[in-house]
Amino acid sequence: MAGSEAPDKITPLRPKRPCPECGKPSARAFYPFCSRRCKDIDLNRWLSGAYAIPGPPIEEDEDGRSSE
Ligand SMILES: [Zn+2]
Fold first, then answer.
1. For ligand 1, a single-atom ion, which residues have Cβ within 5 Å?
2. What is the pTM of this model?
């Protein structure tokens, strides 16, 4: 055995954490979230808790409405 170099030179990056919103792997750009959307969700939640400001219109869901 020549050379006892172990492949441990690579500094382990911090373990990937799942997105706190949806559980998907987090993205670097939106850490610790997976996407800007989830980041906004969290931000909006925080904002709505601190300030009661009207947010931008999100996709409207007509689910839950009983028609006729
Ligand atoms: Zn997410």
1. 19, 21-22, 24, 34, 38
2. 0.48
